[in-house]
Amino acid sequence: MPLALEAMQTEHEADRTTSLMMDAAEARAAIATGDMLGRLYAVVSGLKLDPKRMGANLDLSGGLIMAEAIMLELGTTLGRQQAHDIVYDAAQAAVVEGRAFSDVLAADPRVTARLDRRAIDRLLDPMAYTGLCADMAR
User: Fold this and answer.
1) Are 104 and 93 in contact (CB under 8 A)?
2) How confident is the model at residue 12 (pLDDT cuts 50, 70, 90)?
3) Residue range 71-80: average pLDDT?
4) How many domains does the chain have?
5) What is d(CA 5, CA 130) in angstroms, rounded to the nearest whole number?
6) Listed residue (75, 97, 76) closest to 86, CA to CA
7) Both 30 and 2 in a single domain?
């Protein structure tokens, strides 16, 4: 019985120390959160959205920004590594040869055996790849 009482007392002391440490950490976290929110407000309040410019920025890579969507789709039938290799080869060719990524993909029989031009274009459309982003932003 004395051992149990000693253990209870030690636990109680540890709980109090832990409680004090948690209180201090919570106070620092609240201050840091307030500071971050203030800074975020300063950034967001001056933000102006330009959908036309945003679209132009997405097009700067000639579709390469959407390589993952092609790879994931091809991966469902070819496997991840083979899909990765095909998309990597196409991306390299597009950059080195100065060709549109979609054209390189459409010329590759490994791709066209699984995706027609319409599917390639659909997968390369960033607006079709946003998932739940709009809902989360709202």
Assistant:
1) yes
2) low
3) 96
4) 2
5) 59
6) 75
7) yes
Report pTM: 0.63
Same domain, yes or no: 65 and 125: yes
**Residues 57, 42 share a domain:** no
Query: In sequence order, what DSSP letters do the residues of 9-60 get, joined into one string?
Result: HHHHHHHHHHHHHHHHHHHHHHHHHHHHHHHHHHHHHT----HHHHHHHHHT
For the record, the structure tokens of 99 come out as 């060709």
What is the percentage of the chain residues whose pLDDT exceeds 90? 62
- The domain of 79 spans 53-134
Same domain for 59 and 119, yes or no, is yes
Q: What's the alpha-carbon Rg for the chain, to the nearest Å?
A: 27
Q: What is the pLDDT of residues 91-134, one digit of tens each?
A: 999 999 999 999 999 999 999 999 999 999 999 998 888 878 88
Output the domain CATH number for residue 58.
1.10.40.30
What is d(CA 124, CA 80) in angstroms, rounded to the nearest whole number? 18
